[in-house]
Amino acid sequence: MMHEGRMGRLRQEDEARQREQALTQRPDGGGVDRDPYVEAGGREAKTTDVDKVIAAMAGQTFKAPSGITSTMDPKNHHLHKAVFIGEVKADGQFNVVWKTPGPVKAKPWSPYIAGNDKKKDEPDVVAKK
User: What pTM does this model have?
Assistant: First the structure.
């Protein structure tokens, strides 16, 4: 994958590190998944102005390492991603035993926490492109 600029270089270094290490959990909490969206948002917005980059990120799609195309929700900026269930092997890698056929729309609020059923899935104000 070709990456440009400082963000691209950081992403390439992170991808190389991930290939070298056997991780059972990603410590960044998925932040690396958002890097290409921020990078492309800055290119599309043609600025580093945060509000303009945020607006430009909405609705973008990228092919994830899983092979499934992930989408950034245009309203709440949560990623629609594939879900995998796996068994951890002795070497720290995973044996995938089940996966979704495509991306799943994220629910921003857990249905298992009281009061979340009253929360909206999207902000009152959506960034305009």
Answer: 0.57
